[in-house]
Write a structure and sequence with these properties.
2 copies of one chain form a homodimer.
Chain A lengths: L7 H17 L6 H8 L3 H7 L3 H25 L4 H13 L7 H7 L5 H27 L9 H14 L3 H4 L5 H14 L10
Chain A binds a DNA duplex (30 and 30 nucleotides) through helix 3.
DNA sequence: ATTAAATATACGAATTACGTATAAAAATAT
DNA sequence: ATATTTTTATACGTAATTCGTATATTTAAT
């Protein structure tokens, strides 16, 4: 069991690091803060990572890598748009997708340029793939035409954040019910509609 | 012209302070940072505010006060739900509504308890008023019944954040067009519908 | 020209953050 | 049970931030 990346504490640091860096960026988050929230002592932190920057780098690479894979496999599948949307949101919930603007902002100022290049290429690549997919769905009449697919993606991303809202979750039996509500909203809106009425 | 609150620099500090505090909370934002972003020198900052805490307090009171007034006047108006939703989002865009959880988290740790009480009372008050309103709309058949109004409010709040997304804004002639798109989505969804087809 | 407002710069003091060293405690393996 | 590894608690020195102020200069308004 010498694979460091499967270590419990290591994973806790990565997870907490991602959460905090994603939200507040690099400089606003301290090593001590990450340790506290991850319930890992500072010593073990420095056992796994030589410094704060390397944690951020590791987090970043993992997120982007995993995100791209997930995205692509969903998009490659032969599924109806609604189902794809559903799964897309699901993977976002798992928290591996999207690169926080806040994070990029000050993390990159001190990073190697190759990192930046790699990421920007892969993200826009996936992004375009998604948009193409929605465009096709529009042509097939599954989505209304006066709607920019780019907008839909951004909206989906935003809605994902709500899936962690406790007061909302308390209103539903399971998180899946809330998620279902989201997809329903995106597809049908709040207006009454015959095919979906209770 | 001795009214300090109409001063240009004062307003810049309040505006920047709100933006940063809202996003990152109290402790993560420094006075120098606020000054830089607001393009105000540190000296003038300390001319208007004795310290960082007082800025946060001023920002907070202004936001809550203005937010409540706006909310109430919209809700009191005799308008269709769609129009109310539209205006609600508009006022949110102006940035005076909602109290950031991040901000409350560490700002309140050092604040007077009376502030906390005041705010919690007024916010839940307004919140309930809104929900009541949407419930009424549901009973009148303007919204589908299998939809919790609380969710709609949270969603609206999230969507507002997208109204500042530059890449999205670039796709529309005016910000109003993007806003219109949001309300359309909320009401009709992305599915094709006869009454709204292009 | 006079006055008021805003800035640039630098400063000391306090706090925070970084990364390391040491020794104790907890968990795991033998 | 004993040995070994892993994690922790604590403290430390150093560096960087941040706070709030002091002083001198610039800009803008009257």
């Amino acid at each position: 069991m010498e694979n460091i990346s499967h270590n419990k504490k290591y994973k806790a640091l990565m997870e907490t690091g991602r959460r905090l860096f994603w939200k507040h960026g690099f400089r606003r988050v301290s090593v001590e803060e990450v340790c506290e929230e991850a319930k890992v002592s500072k010593m073990t932190f420095y056992k796994y990572f030589p410094n704060k920057f390397e944690l951020a780098k590791a987090v970043f690479m993992e997120v982007v890598g995993k995100g791209v894979t997930d995205f692509k496999s969903i998009m490659a599948a032969d599924l109806p748009v609604g189902e794809k949307m559903h799964r897309l949101i699901l993977t976002k919930v798992e928290g591996t997708n999207e690169v926080s603007r806040e994070f990029l902002a000050d993390f990159y100022l001190g990073a190697e340029p190759e990192l930046k290049e790699f990421v920007e290429k892969t993200t826009t690549e996936v992004w375009n793939e998604l948009i193409k997919d929605y465009r096709k769905a529009q042509e097939e009449g599954m989505l209304r035409n006066d709607f920019k697919p780019e907008l839909l993606l951004k909206i989906a991303t935003k809605l994902v954040e709500l899936l962690k809202d406790e007061s909302l979750l308390a209103m539903y039996d399971t998180p899946q019910d809330l998620l279902l509500e989201f997809t329903n909203l995106l597809v049908y809106g709040v207006a009454p509609h015959s095919s979906h009425e209770k």
